[in-house]
Predict the 3D structure of the following.
Amino acid sequence: MTHPQPHTVAWRGALAAIGLLASLGVARAQPAPVPPPPLAAELAERRIEVTTAFTGGEILVFGATERLIGERGDEIVVLATGPLTSMVVREKIQVLGFWINGPTARFNRIPAYWALAGTRAVEEMLAADERGEQRLGLDLIPLPQLGARGPQFRDALRELKQRDGLWVDQAAPVEVSGGRLFHARLPVPSTVTTGTYRVQVMLVRAGRVAARQELQLDVVRVGTAAQIADVARNQPMLYGLACVVLAALAGWLGSVLFRRS
Amino acid sequence: MQVYLPIAEMSVDALLLLGIGFGVGWLSGLFGVGGGFLLTPLLILIGIPSAVAVGSGANQTLGASVSGLIAQWRRGNVDVRMGSVLLVGGFVGSFAGVQLFAFLRRAGQVDLAVAIFYVVVLGTVGALMVRESVGAILRRKGSRPARLHEHFWIHGLPLKMRFRKSRLYISVIPPLLVGFFIGLLSAVMGVGGGFMLVPAMIYLLGMPTSIVIGTSLFQVVFVTANVTFLQAVQIGSVDIVLTMLLLAGGVAGAQFGAAMGGKLRGEETRALLGVLVLAVAGALLWDLLRVPGELFVIGPAP
């Protein structure tokens, strides 16, 4: 597996970048005392490429704070959200002994991907009203429900999205090294939706968000997978014809190759 | 080795798909059927969405049947006239089937409909096959000859047409209806329908067995081509990567199966196939009846 390699390289590059940033900051601080930013964050990669060999990846966020990170000092919360989609949740009911799809609730404009991580449990870190205002919690994602009523649909949506790895509620904490450097790895499954993702890095002081930085990354399909999906979506007639011709050719060719006479 | 399927939008083990293709191809070569009725349920079982399983299943059946059609055509075993009449019905039927499929998808009942179609059709066909072949095996022991060609109400219908190769002079209505029905099943179940078409041609239309296989392949190839095209355009559920992996395994498996198939006797083969068909129907029925592990399902909004 070559999987961890790009990340290790990216991570080393990231550390080098932080070092450079820090030295620049020191160099500039001497002639004119500009206060350093309380928070600086960056993404290891601005692009996640979905190829035919894609089995999932991760969003690696890293950065540094001005003050020490700890329970009484600064704390970090990272929130990543994917593009908005519409989902339906169906409840299975028993009709004449058969289990069929019954009442359906529709949720419009919900994040296709959502991941939260903090240096410690976000519920303990933030005051309840602040947490509600910033919507930092799985239970605080706005889920406008159409169709069938009842809280069980929302609960099922949250649970199934989490099971698919598309909504990640503090699966791993934000790691701190050297007191001021932090990094978080947010897992991205292979079923991830393409589009633009927002990553918010927030600095928490005394239960309030004191500073924030917003970053963006793109999840894009590349290579053969991208081309196939594009043609299928934009030129379905051509794609349909191609499927017919390719299958026929492959079937014919295969029978010639594998003929056992 | 994981491979990302661009239309199903998920990663699946490529070796698993090749293996499924090989296994189904082997069985289809052994029994001389397309194997779509085994393939689509297996794909659903490993987690491919029903719509993609049906669309790609039809596409794979097309590829798997092409070489058979070419071989039969060279031997002159295709009644083009009968095949064309069947095909007219087949095109209308598959068009209607894709519309039905699109409607079921909007209603969120594709999974249920596909499962019920499989249980009913496979249950019926499997039971008939087992009964017929067991009867034939018993008759062979008692050596009571069966009648070769029977006349019944079908031969009294209007719009008669002469099918020289089939040595038939019958109304076009029965073949049109048979074609329509198979086309409908092909669109909803992602199969070629050969396992139903062949008995229908022998027992309902009274065609000679020598040209039944070739003519049914003629219908299967063109109807699955139509289903593939319509599913790709209207539902957007044909995954060419999935199709190609299944075909690669399937074409290889079919050659080995066919080599073994020559050693089995006709009635025993049909009885075995009938049992296999019944087993698939039973598994799908069990899936509908047992308490689901998950009482809620999520999916993209239609």
Residues 2-289 of chain B form one domain.
